[in-house]
Design a protein that fits this description.
The protein has helices spanning about 1-5, 25-35, 50-55, 70-75, 90, 105, 110, 145, 160-175, 190-195, 200-215; strands spanning about 15-20, 40-45, 80-85, 115, 125, 130-135, 150-155. By secondary structure, the protein is of the alpha/beta class. Strand 4 (about 115) and strand 5 form a beta hairpin.
Length: about 240
């Protein structure tokens, strides 16, 4: 509303979505990005090992390359892309959290105006980037980073919400698999009821397999028997047995 009133580019304060795995945090942000018709870059922070991921590597090195924020800016015709720091909490424990230190600069609009990428050697205006992050456990994220983020807690969806999510995921899969006109645009109520027992993440995998089964059977409609829920593997303790 502020951007519309000021006729200015879309600017959203840095947002952190916190919730259990598989509840659809990343999908929610992808949906939001589609509605704004904005470029969406995902950075997997669970594999981040050092600051070079964000700051780029020194231009004096032969293998030097720009950091992901600068790459996102160079790849688009606009300066306010959406960047998602996926599983931010996973990066905080790696190598004393060195990988996230550049965020102290990038998440503050004033300091981000003079962000220095090591690969180019001069200041870059990264202040228009729209930052999002996800985490399972916000307590692992240092307070200086948390103070720069607006936190939204994501709860496990209710049954009614899962029914809506199932419909959304199915329509999304129709687009991904180029199946419009091949499959019905609507899911049978019995299929939706069968799907709501799983998490949104598992639901998408189950739906994709169900579409494959229906296609193999020459059908353009998913039936309840096409739904096969993944097997849950229970963790077992290791110990010794006395005989």
């Amino acid at each position: 509303a502020l951007s519309r009133a000021a006729k200015s580019p879309i600017q959203i304060p840095p947002v952190l979505l916190v919730g259990p795995p598989g509840v659809g945090k990343t999908e929610a942000l992808r949906w939001l990005c589609q509605r704004f018709a904005m470029h969406f870059e995902i950075i997997d922070m669970s594999t981040a090992q050092d600051v070079f991921l964000l700051t780029g590597s020194d231009m004096r090195y032969k293998s030097s390359q720009a950091g992901l924020p600068l790459q996102a800016l160079m790849a688009q015709d606009y300066a306010n892309p959406f960047i998602l720091l996926d599983e931010l909490d996973k990066a905080c424990g790696s190598r004393d959290g060195l990988a996230i230190q550049p965020l102290l600069t990038l998440l503050e609009r004033k300091s981000a105006k003079q962000f220095r990428d090591l690969a180019v050697g001069f200041a870059v205006d990264a202040s228009h980037i729209n930052w999002f992050a996800t985490a399972n456990d916000a307590s692992l994220i240092p307070e200086p980073i948390m103070s720069r983020l607006q936190v939204i807690n994501i709860q496990v969806p209710s049954t009614n919400q899962l029914r809506q999510i199932a419909t959304y995921l199915y329509r999304d899969l129709l687009i991904e698999q180029h199946c419009h006109g091949v499959f019905s645009e609507y899911l049978d109520e019995a299929v939706v009821t069968s799907l709501v027992s799983g998490s949104p993440r598992a639901m998408k995998r189950v739906l994709q397999k169900a579409m494959g089964r229906a296609a193999r059977g020459g059908r353009g409609v998913i039936q309840p028997e096409d739904i096969e829920h993944p097997v849950t593997v229970k963790k077992r303790s290791i110990g010794f047995v006395l005989h």
